[in-house]
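Section 5.1 Outputs to date
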Amino acid sequence: MTTKTKSRKAKIVEIARERNVVTVDGLSQVLDVSPQTVRRYLNGLCAENILRRRHGGAELFEGPLNQPYGQRSVTNPQEKKAIGIAAANLIPDGATVFLSIGTTPETVAQALSEKKGLTIVTNNLNAAMALSREETNRIILPGGELRLPDKDIIGDEALALFSNYRAEFGVFGVGGVDQDGCLLDFHSSEVRIREKIRANSRVSLLVLDSTKFGRAAPAVGGNIADVDKVIMDQPPGAEYAHLLERIGDRIHLVEGGT
C-alpha cells in the first residue's frame, strides 16, 4: 500500500469518526479523487471491519449491531408500556419535552398522547407520529437522512437541533448499562445526542427495562448516576446493587417491579 493510499484511507476513517456516515460523492470531493477510487478505499476499509458499507457510502463499524427494530419493539412490551406510563405521569400538559430514539421512548410518546399543548423536540419519527394525533401539540424534527427501519435521525442535524433548545423534561433510552454505570449505545452519534438531551433538560429521565444492565454496546458516554430519574421495571442483578445505592431515591420501579 502506498503512502498516499494510507493517508487517504486514514482521512476517510477520520471523517467517519466525526460524522459516523461518509458518502462516495462527498469523499470524492474532499480527497479530489474519482468515485471509483473512493469505492476501492471503502471496500478495503470494510474488509478490515473498520467501516460497513451502506447505500451511497459507508458508516463507522462499531462492533455488535443492535437488534432489528421490529424485534426490539416486541421485547418486554408490557414492561415498556408500564415504564412509558410512569414517565408520562411526570410530565404535565404544556411541557417542552425532548424524546430520543428507541422503542422505550416511543412507549413514553404513546402514553403522552393523552396530554395537550406539548412542545416535542425529537429525532424519533415513531414518537412524533404517536404525538401528532393531538393537534394542540407542537412537534419539532431535525432534517437529515431517515434511518430505516428504525425511523429515526442520528446525524449532525439531530445533534444541532437538541443543541438549540432547552426542555423541561428530556426522555431517553440506552443501549446498555455497564457494571460501573457507564451508559452504552451502538453508535457514537447516538451517545452525543443522548448526552445533549440530558445536558439541555431541566429533568432528565432514563427509561429502560432491566435487561439493559450488562448488555454490550461499543459506544460509551455518560453515567447512570448523572441522570435525574431512572424509570425501569425491576432491579437488575445483585452485581449492580452498588449502582442502585448511588442512584438512591432517583430510581422509580413501575408497578410489578420487585
